[in-house]
Amino acid sequence: MPIDDLSKGLPLRDLFQAHERYQLNKGTALRMNRYSALIFDLDGTLIDSAPDIAAAVNVCMAERGWPELDVDYVEQFIGNGPRRLLLDIFIDKGLPADDAAVEEAVQRYIESYRRNPAGKTRFFNHVEEDLYRLHEAGFRLGICTNKPHSLTQDILRILKLDSIIDVAMGADAVPACKPDPGHLLAVVEKMELEPGAWAYIGDTKVDKRTAEAANAPFYVVPWGGGGDVPVEPHQRLERLTDLLGHRR
Question: In the annotation, is 130 catalytic?
Answer without folding.
Answer: no
